[in-house]
Amino acid sequence: MSTHTDPADAKHSSTTTLDAIIVGAGFSGLYMLHRLRELGFDARVLEAGNGVGGTWYWNRYPGARCDSESYYYSYSFSDELQQEWRWSERYPGQAEIRNYLNHVADRFELRSGIQLGTRVSHAVFDAKRDLWHIQTADGERLSARFFITAVGCLSAANIPQIDGLDEFAGDWYHTGQWPHEGVDFRGKRVGVIGTGSTGIQAIPVIAQDAAHLTVFQRTANFSVPARNAPLDPAEEKAYKADYETIRRSQRESANGHPFNVSEIPALSVSEDERRQRYEAAWARGSLRFRTVFKDLLTDEDANTTASEFIRGKIHETVNDPGTAETLTPRDHPFATKRPPIDTHYFETYNRDNVALVDVKRTPIERMDATGLNTSEAHYPLDILVFATGFDAMTGALLNIDIEGRDGQKLREKWSAGPRSYLGLQVAGFPNLFTITGPGSPSVLTNMPTSIEQHVDWIAECMTHMRDHGLNRIEANRQSEDAWVAHVNDAAQQTLLPKANSSWYLGANVPGKPRIFMPYAGGAANYRAICEDVAAQGYDGFVFGEPAHATG
Ligand code: N01
After folding, report:
1. Measured in angstroms, how far is the CA atom of residue 160 from the centroid of ligand 1?
2. Residue located nearest, by CA, to atom 41 of ligand 1
3. Cα 338 to ligand 1 centre (Å)
4. How far apart are CA 438 and CA 420, in angstroms?
5. The whole model's pTM is what?
6. Does position 545 have pLDDT exceeding 70, yes or no?
7. How far is the C-alpha of 346 from the C-alpha of 195, rounded, in Å?
8. Residue in 89, 85, 98 with CA at minimum distance from that of residue 180
9. pLDDT tens for residues 447-468?
10. Are 514 and 505 in contact, with CB atoms under 8 Å apart?
11. Cα gap 492→35, rounded to integer Å
12. Which of 257, 281, 286, 254 has the alpha carbon at shortest distance from 496?
């Protein structure tokens, strides 16, 4: 397959027809491009930003850092790459990850296949020719056999509608659209709305510079210390010597991290032993805290022991008992929302220049020229930071006007929540692949591990089609229905749907349907299902003319 100019494209004014158009130049898009080029496909990445990096290009807020550890929050596809790249800290900061992804783009000579500053606005499937016609916001038109979204799960900013925001005389920013030149908080009265992973990373850093910081919290959050530190050269040497095992363990784990969940139920040990185990995990830091006992995410009583331990730590850390209580989550079990990890988050509330406002008790009413008004008080501000998260998992996909077979829009098809087969394809939308799409484990895992799995599967599927002269693949409706039911069942086997304010459920965006979107059945299990589907001749997909796929 190759690029050609197609005179028959006059209707769409297309000049270029490719094998694949990939949207997004983050971890997913870069690797997808690399794999397809290796396999001899002609692919192009269209990226809205003016640089590569995806999440790590946009999220430049103070304190932005990955919660996975650097030695495994990286690609595994090239041993040379993982041996030569040097991480400087236990958890990689935003700038370092962006440098890494730029290095990947250079090292694998990807730049010639990436078109920056190009936002895809429309994509329409042409069933007569099995082609996707893509239009960009600048009016450019391209066509491709395959349309592959690598848009990220957390990339469409969620900015709450607050009356009077346009009257505010100060500056406001969303953390996911942070100015490249940075923001100078010195001497400023700053407000932060949101205490998710982002707010919890940004608040301690902003507090160091701001004259005064007011945190507007809607839902109190659990957080465990990260214990970030510079990487010791001996540690680096050790993990570099062990990459084969580390990568295997990532692929075989439930969450893409190279550590296993304990086999021990929380209530099978004495209270003393439980406490010791939690203390050790607290001292060590990281998302591993979730793995201390096997049943923290499946048994409410087991979970309560972890939740209570963290609640106790918040009260030990925060000097003012009223503030400590406001910071203590009581409405959801630990880790049923994505648990943040932090660097001195709770300690920050002991600073004289930091105040906490509970906006569940005293809701935000409006902004005015000088600041923010809750139902109880006026808070004068110079800068307001929205750490309010994202229209997760579906937002970035639905921001593109995607039209499949028979004029069906993805927006209509997903009006009651996303439906997909394996999180990879949507019935009625042939030759569209959604990397880490809703219905796949994605955000419940270490993302690069899930991304590599999806990219490899898609690349193999496209190779299979090329080898067999097939132009079209589409998930059939029955397989999609069964998968949606299975995703729902898998979530119900866990405590995850119990967090009413979770973005996993779409609860953070007003009006969004409440559906548990990621697949909670485990990444290794999911990988095996995908491999099996391929081995069975792509069971559940229809190739060629999908006469009986009436999605
Ligand atoms: O977003 P969030 P985030 N009024 O949705 C509050 C990943 N991540 O950007 O809980 C008042 O978690 C909202 O309140 P509530 C990670 O997967 C990864 O922090 O909805 N408050 C909540 O407190 C993470 O989970 C890294 O009641 C409002 C906050 O804003 C995901 O990104 C680092 C509000 C939003 O929290 C999202 O995290 C950072 C309103 N109208 C993030 N609307 C890594 O390490 C929302 N809120 C890789």
Report:
1. 12
2. 160
3. 9
4. 7
5. 0.95
6. no
7. 11
8. 98
9. 999 999 999 999 999 999 999 9
10. yes
11. 36
12. 254
